Amino acid sequence: MQRQVSLWHATSFAPLSKLTHLDLVRMIPPANLTAFLLGDASITLVDPDDVLSPLVRDEIEAGLSPHLTLECLRISDLPRKALYHFGDFAVWRKAYDAYRSLSPSERALRAAPRPPESTEECFQFQNSLYNLASNSRKLPSLRLVILDIVTDMHDEPYGALRQLVEEGALKGVSETFPLPGAGDGESYAATGKLALLFGANAKVPEEIIARIGELDDRWQGYVADEDEHWQLVHQGKHDLIQLWNDSRKPANGHDPIPVHTEIRIAADRYQFLSSGDRQREFVCQASSLEALEHAEGSPLSSQDVGIWADPDVFELVKTMPWLSYIQLNEMGCCCWLGGLPRDSNPNPGLSRQKGEEPRLVHPSIVLLDENKLNETGRDEVRARRAQEEEEEEARKRQRTEAAAAEQADAAPI
After folding, report:
1. Domain range spanning residue 65?
2. Predicted confidence (pLDDT) per residue in 317-348, tens digit
3. Where is this region: Disordered (predicted)?
4. How far is CA 231 from the centre of its chain?
5. Same domain, 290 and 364
6. Which of 52, 144, 222, 288 sits CB 3.0–4.6 Å from 72 for a disulfide?
7. What would the pLDDT profile of 160-207 be if each residue is shown by its tens digit?
8. Which helix (H) or strand (E) holds 245?
9. Helices within 40-184 (DSSP H only)
10. Residue 408 CB: number of other CB atoms within 10 A?
């Protein structure tokens, strides 16, 4: 049974003593809660304002901590930059903890390590995350950690796309990208085989990228910024996993052997539930796909449902790539919004494990397969073509009239 409680002003965490699943929504775990979850009142308190309450200490000593029973932990609605440079933060925390362990006379002879630059919110989160990761062996039953990070769904530069279409810069993009139409069962069923969505060579050719840059330099900057964001998130996830696994070994032979902990970065579901046609379409597509995925045999564990079944965003690149694209029928293409990554492994040098799955990088702009559009989509395409023909006729008339006027001016009087 799921219960929603507020922990903001909690003075006692004893009711959480048998906890197995915990979802913290818009709440970075404070020091008291982190210590209670770990069953350890001796965690390092970096913030001078952090003081463990006597009651929490008593509850930990009384064995009320759920550190042996907690199986799944989710922290939702985290800041966009929550994992940026987490590896640098971990290096600093290790050095800072070593500095704190020195005697007062020794500390007086050396400067304290300075933390990496960050916002206050990100610093607080990374500090809490470090305390959990560096003490992961104290949570032996914790098999799943989900970090739900706020994502941005940018407004694509429509002007740039229109110019791309008019200048013919999109010609040459070989792969089609048939997005499932919201609520359209037939259109959705046509895209059930993921292999039909993207081929091995589904990349925008270099000459197309160059042409885009010539027409509007905003586009390349927009794509580069979002690619860099997901690269930093991916790097932070890798550094977190490394710290978590390094700290997972039991301290002695009497402690229970911890289970493997899976760490996922989840899409911010609250962001996509905000107002707007794009978000509603996203939710429709996601819910339809969820049913199809389970019907075809989902890779997700059968014991995880609801928010605990949310996949990792980098897995979505391989399984649900269309979720971060917007379908622009009137322009005959789809474009990437940046709300989810388009690269399944943006830091390929981090892992060279045997049998590693191939890296998938999807294009930022793809052409629509008009044969797989629903009736509304086909109507929009026909309207676009009619408008293009009308505009071309208007340009022809202008050229004809200009030529006639030029001839009239050149004629002898």
Report:
1. 14-134
2. 888 777 777 777 667 777 788 888 989 999 98
3. 365-413
4. 10
5. yes
6. 144
7. 777 777 777 666 554 444 443 333 332 222 232 223 333 334 444 455
8. helix 217-246
9. 54-61, 86-100, 104-107, 120-133, 158-167
10. 8
